[in-house]
Design a protein that fits this description.
Radius of gyration of chain B: 20 Å
Order of helices and strands of chain B: EEHEEEEEHHHHHHHH
Shape of chain A: elongated
Largest sheet of chain B: 5 strands, mixed
Number of helices of chain B: 9
Family (chain B): Belongs to the succinate dehydrogenase/fumarate reductase iron-sulfur protein family.
Shape of chain B: elongated
Oligomer: heterodimer
Cofactor (chain B): [3Fe-4S] cluster; [2Fe-2S] cluster; [4Fe-4S] cluster
Largest sheet of chain A: none
CATH class of the largest domain in chain B: Mainly Alpha
Number of domains of chain B: 2
Distance between the termini of chain B: 60 Å
Keywords (chain B): 2Fe-2S, 4Fe-4S, Iron, Iron-sulfur, Metal-binding, Oxidoreductase
Number of helices of chain A: 8
Helix content of chain A: over 70%
CATH architecture of the largest domain in chain B: Orthogonal Bundle
Strand content of chain A: under 5%
Structural class of chain B: alpha+beta
Structural class of chain A: mainly alpha
Distance between the termini of chain A: 42 Å
Protein name (chain B): Succinate dehydrogenase / fumarate reductase iron-sulfur subunit
Number of strands of chain B: 7
CATH topology of the largest domain in chain B: Fumarate Reductase Iron-sulfur Protein, Chain B, domain 2
Organism (chain B): Lishizhenia tianjinensis
Strand order of the largest sheet of chain B: 2-1-5-3-4
Helix content of chain B: 25-40%
Order of helices and strands of chain A: HHHHHHHH
Strand content of chain B: 5-15%
């Protein structure tokens, strides 16, 4: 769980950095997206590893939850979990399921059309009918619908909650501790807030700039 | 103080068991929680009813025998104390108090509030010791220099009394805090390093075989531990385990 979590957090960071380019410079976003979408190392090595990491993380999460439920075969009549642990840490499955549902929508929105264009239709140019890069235009198109933007925002708030516990939990599980622990915990909290809320900012930015606000 | 008590009653390990209601009056705020149960048992005895079975021994917070899940928390709402040190002044007149046994598949209920915690003993037998040559020429432990910081951490880990509150509080019924304390108290000392690899592998294996859950690092165990055993021990045990597994 922890090793796949490290990989997914690194992926999340680079995804965030690329998406932020869409706010700063559409040209830079187009060029980076084209590089990521056509580079053989990323397409045929990193992408399968990423898909494996996502599936592995979720499957292991469900297995872990099932084993842990079995470890207490009789439930307490009264259990005050809030007295000693955060909601985030006690409900990783809930926040994880919301993120999983969001990933389904995200794949439907971006990954499936991209794979269809490149590997079914065989168009690797990354250009639209006007002969310009299509990536920024496609991104903007997805953030016109207010409901879709709202779903994205809710999912990223849940992702923030997931990371609030998950970031430091991954370090604890791999035994990484020591003098840097206090600073790492603060960094983990900052990461869990800044990165997901950055994605929310990007979604809202494109929605508001396109709807005339 | 007058209190409403909801207490788990179970005749034996095969009985299904259930929550029963009791009223108790004139409880002194200065009574310990166990003394309050003593008074209730006296009342039940006087009425010819079966008294409630619960674990206790030293009543000084050092033996780890008393248990009880009180209002959803092991050893009750106070921090850094066992049930025997919990006083009734922590509750208010008219309160309803839920009293249950520590719940885990690895801690089967024997009767009422008494659970079998021998799973901890079996984990300890799997490696929670240092093999010592008792031929008569054993080296004096005080002759081995140990950094003060390491000695302090080892001592802190060794203050674990094995009460099982960590398991009871964990939403996964994990025993990681207990096992990590027992691993750490030796792993930090030169005398314990010789058998460190086998110790951590065998103790974790025994823990898994007993049916405890997996640690998801919620930290509930550290909060509820009456001896303040730190989560640092779990990180240390994870390090020891990874290192031992790679060298295996």
């Amino acid at each position: 769980m922890a090793l796949s979590a490290f990989f997914l957090m690194l992926f999340l960071l680079q995804h965030f950095a690329i998406n932020m380019m869409s706010v700063v410079s559409p040209e830079m976003f187009n060029e980076t997206s084209h590089f990521m979408g056509t580079n053989p190392m990323i397409q045929y090595l990193m992408q399968p590893i990423l898909i494996f990491a996502v599936v592995f993380h979720f499957v292991m999460g469900f297995i872990l939850e099932a084993r842990n439920k079995a470890a207490r075969n009789v439930k307490y009549a009264k259990y005050n979990g809030a007295a000693n642990a955060s909601w985030f840490s006690r409900n990783m499955l809930v926040s994880g399921l919301v993120v999983l549902a969001f990933l389904g929508l995200h794949f439907y929105d971006f990954w499936l059309p991209e794979v269809t264009t490149k590997f079914v239709e065989g168009d690797m140019t990354g250009l639209n009918a006007a002969g310009e890069f299509r990536y920024f235009e496609e991104l903007q198109h997805k953030f016109v619908d207010g409901w879709r933007v709202a779903i994205y925002c809710v999912a990223f708030v849940l992702l923030a909650m997931h990371l609030m516990h998950g970031f430091n939990s991954a370090f604890q599980s791999t035994g990484i501790d020591g003098k840097m622990a206090a600073g790492r915990k603060k960094f983990g909290t900052a990461f869990a807030i800044i990165v997901p809320l950055g994605f929310v900012f990007i979604a809202l930015f494109h929605f508001l700039t396109q709807t005339g606000h | 103080m007058n209190l409403n008590l909801k207490i788990w009653r179970q005749k034996n390990s095969n009985d299904k068991g259930g929550m029963h209601s009791y009223q108790i009056s004139d409880v002194s705020p200065d009574m310990s929680f166990l003394e309050m149960l003593d008074v209730l048992n006296q009342q039940l005895n006087d009425k010819g009813e079966e008294p409630i079975a619960f674990d206790h021994d030293c009543r000084e917070g050092i033996c780890g025998m008393c248990s009880l899940q009180i209002n959803g928390e092991p050893h009750g709402p106070d921090r850094g104390v066992t049930t025997c040190q919990l006083h009734m002044r922590k509750f208010n007149d008219g309160d309803t108090i839920y009293i249950e046994p520590f719940r885990a598949k690895a801690f089967p209920v024997i009767k009422d509030l008494v659970v079998d915690r021998s799973a901890f003993d079996r984990i300890q037998h799997a490696g929670g010791f240092v093999s010592v040559n008792t031929s008569g020429n054993t080296q004096d432990a005080n002759a081995i220099p140990i950094p003060k910081a390491d000695a302090d951490k080892a001592f802190d880990a060794a203050t674990c009394i094995g009460c099982g509150a960590c398991v009871a509080s964990c939403k996964n019924a994990s025993a990681m805090l207990y096992v990590s304390a027992k691993v750490s108290q030796f792993a930090l000392l030169p005398q314990g390093k010789v058998e460190a690899k086998d110790r951590v592998l065998n103790m974790v294996k025994a823990m898994d075989e007993e049916g405890f859950g997996n640690c998801t690092n919620t930290g509930a165990c550290e909060v509820e531990c009456p001896k303040g055993i730190s989560l640092e021990n779990i990180a240390r045990m994870n390090r020891e385990y990874l290192s031992a597994s790679l060298k295996k």
